Amino acid sequence: MDRVPPSEGGGCPFEPGREHDSRDERYLRRAIALAGEAAAGGDVPVGAVLVVGERSFEGRNEKEQRPDPTAHAEVIAVREAARILGTWRIGGTLYVTKEPCAMCAGAIAAARIERLVFGCADPKGGAVGSVIDVLASGAINHRVSVTAGVLETETAQQLRDYFRAKRVGRTSGAELPPLPVIS
Ligand SMILES: [Zn+2]
């Protein structure tokens, strides 16, 4: 029983890191690596691993690279699982580095995913408790167990580093001479 009622209580909607285990951390670390690949390709670093039985399916944010507004890490992993497994009713556990957006939360419910484990919250666009709570809505007739805040520090730092680097690049990168190559 690791259900964390996302809207219970008045303060933080989550109890960070509650009742997760080393398996959760292992898959989330893989998601962090995928997020790193997304950043290297010019996308916001978000990575996802969907574990169904003995199999796992991976996705990384490719919105800019494709470009495709629906190419979020979670959607890519869900689509890949559906394609390989030959069913839309996927189940399993989805690991993702940050709180899913409204589109991805909808996809998680539509795929009948049983459990969601994510890293840091997204105060601007998070749809699993931060801005809205899609999965807790009475309009969704499928309940997903949610564990939030696993490797919260690392996942938040990865996003901060990405946006900081981007800001630096935008404000002064064009005027700066190229960095010396150190070999
Ligand atoms: Zn999304």
SSE arrangement:
Elements: H1 22-40, E1 47-52, E2 55-60, H2 73-85, E3 93-98, H3 102-110, E4 115-120, E5 145-147, H4 152-173
Parallel strand pairs: 3-4, 4-5
Antiparallel strand pairs: 1-2, 1-3
The structure holds zinc ion.
Residues 72, 74, 100-101, 103-104 line the site of zinc ion (ZN).
Could you walk me through the main structural features you see in this protein, from its secondary elements to its overall organization?
A hairpin with a 2-residue loop joins strand 1 and strand 2. A five-stranded mixed sheet has the order 2-1-3-4-5. The radius of gyration is 17 Å and the shape is globular. Helix 1 (22-40) packs parallel to helix 4 (152-173). The model is unreliable at 1-13 (pLDDT under 50). The protein has four helices and five strands, in the order H-E-E-H-E-H-E-E-H. It starts with 21 loop residues before the first helix and ends in a 10-residue tail after the last helix. By secondary structure, the chain is an alpha/beta fold. It has helices at residues 22-40, 73-85, 102-110, 152-173, and strands at residues 47-52, 55-60, 93-98, 115-120, 145-147. Zinc ion (ZN) is lined by residues 72, 74, 100-101, 103-104.
